[in-house]
């Protein structure tokens, strides 16, 4: 049974989040705004933290991992410039929230998570909420997902020491890669594009703080 009062309360919190945290800070892409309005973020956070789901910050989802601040999710997805027919790879499923937001904007999202427990929980929730164009895969996302490559967009939701070569290789011509890169404590969000001559261009999108990307082409531990 849906608790109508709770439902309405969450909806109004989500509307305020989109207006105050996203639009006022310059997230102009209407499709991104609408997707952030539609996804019930409170269901992606642990039950005990539900009342903070629409606050302006990241939240713990267990095992030292976090669900990113709403603004950062919107900012990264806007920068990825998603198109309706795009096939996208996300590295770092976590709660599955960013994958859900992204899935409303593209054709297909493959999302890779190294911790099986997170992957399982996210997969179950996404299925329950009827997201049909998301596939959750357990594995090391620093190696990308060769069997589904190449991708129009790749979104990395954890901080990398260097840009994994596998991800560059699996990017289509005209593709975009969004990745936080730096030390374990602070990173620079980077937009990497591959142009028509397969030339790689990098742009900095500002300072961010993510949990470490751990894997073969990431941090060793
Ligand atoms: N996008 C998520 C937040 C991700 S937190 C959300 O919306 O909730 C970062 C996640 O990346 C963590 O769950 C962590 O376990 C995962 N991760 C770290 N290194 C990884 C790797 N090499 N491959 C896949 N997932 C990784």
The N- and C-terminal alpha carbons lie at a distance of: 43 Å
Q: For the CA atoms, what is the radius of gyration?
A: 16 Å
Strand percent estimate: 25-35%
Measured as a percent range, the helix fraction is 25-40%
- Ligand roster: S-adenosyl-L-homocysteine
Shape: globular
In CATH's first tier, which class of one domain applies?
A: Alpha Beta
In CATH terms, the superfamily of one domain is: Vaccinia Virus protein VP39
Query: How do the SSEs run, as a string of H and E?
Result: HHEEHEHEHEEHEEE
Low-confidence stretches: none
- From the coordinates shown, what is the CATH architecture of one domain? 3-Layer(aba) Sandwich
* SS elements, strand count: 9
Structural class: alpha/beta
Mean pLDDT: 96
Q: Return the CATH topology of one domain.
A: Rossmann fold
| Individual helix count | 6
Let me know the largest β-sheet: 7 strands, mixed
**Strand order, sheet with most strands:** 5-4-3-6-7-8-9
Short characterization:
The protein has 221 residues and is of the alpha/beta class. 29% of the residues lie in helices and 26% in strands. It has six helices and nine strands, in the order ααββαβαβαββαβββ.
Tags for this model:
29% helix; two-stranded antiparallel ribbon; globular; single chain; Rossmann fold; alpha/beta; 7-stranded mixed beta sheet; 221 residues; binds S-adenosyl-L-homocysteine
